[in-house]
Amino acid sequence: MELGEAYRVLEVTPGATKEQVREARNVLAKVWHPDRHQGDPKIHDRAAAKLLAINEAYALIESAQFPPAPQAPRREAPPAYVDTLRPRPTAPQSVASPPATRRRMILPFLFGAGVAAAAIGFVVLHHESSGPAGTAGTAGPAGTAGPAPTNAPPMPSAKPMFTLGSTRDDVRRVQGPPTSTDDTFGERWSYGMAEIEFTQGTVTAWRSSAFDHLSGTLVAEDPSAAAAAKQRGTYGPHASRDEVLGVQGPPDGIDFAFGETWSYGMSNVKFDKDGRIATVWNTDLVPLKIKN
């Protein structure tokens, strides 16, 4: 395992502090501990393999003495004049004029610029006043206004997102091609340190990381409950999915391996079969807005 892979396994960014790496290891170790899955051999074996990778990743970062984040190479500022077709024209060197001469040169220029501006203004006003009634820029008939201009820029479209049940093609359109794929424990696409899982070709889970964020979203089943919770700004310890969604927004990740779990950074919320909060893991890195 390389150092970059170790950070991906622990879901932390390169350069994370010793405390951040330890907290990430402890959280993931609790989630993936095989003793929690004695009744399901398949999940037990998967959890054991995951826990082994977590411990190996932590040991590798610890042996590297928790190195700081690598500095990005300094980029030189682009030149003030860039033209790939022809070289920059060079003006002939001239001797600086004394102040009086510069003033004589500037005054005619300012006078000429003022005359040009006045001429342009006259032409524009003449064009607007002589245009047909009811056109843009004119008053038209008394009490009416001209039609809105037709060359207004289009409104920007919403950012494309994927959600549970989205197909591979949907994800590819939103996220682009994955950086890697893995079929060891089901179909999994990786985008840096983020992952999307598929079952029979549709999204069943995803996990963003602090370094690589996925454009996954969820839609409230009861928008009024989500809106009311958003207005309050907090939710209770047994709130519904829609209340959490209204306050916290879409989760960074959603997983069903150990019950429905939504993650927000290193914090997560687990729901029971009725869609109510069952347990909460709250951290200081991304504190949840839950009110006890």
Short description:
It contains 7 helices and 8 strands, in the order H-H-H-H-H-E-E-E-E-H-H-E-E-E-E. The protein has 292 residues and is an alpha+beta fold.
Descriptive notes:
This protein is of the alpha+beta class and 292 residues long. Among the domains are: 61 residues, Helix Hairpins; 114 residues, no CATH class. It is 36% helix and 13% strand. An eight-stranded antiparallel beta sheet has the order 1-2-3-4-5-6-7-8, with helices on one face. A hairpin with a 2-residue loop joins strand 3 and strand 4. Helix 1 packs across helix 3. The relative contact order is 0.08. About 27% of the residues have low confidence.
Q: What level of helicity do the residues show?
A: 25-40%
The side-by-side strand order for the widest beta sheet comes to 1-2-3-4-5-6-7-8
Rough outline:
globular
Work out the radius of gyration.
31 Å
The counted number of beta strands is: 8
Largest sheet descriptor: 8 strands, antiparallel
Encode the helix/strand succession as letters: HHHHHEEEEHHEEEE
Give the integer mean of the pLDDT values. Answer: 75
C-alpha end-to-end distance: 42 Å
Ranges with pLDDT <50 over ≥5 residues?
Answer: 77-111, 115-157
Strand content: 5-15%
- Secondary-structure-derived class: alpha+beta
Total of DSSP H or I helical runs spanning 4+ residues: 7
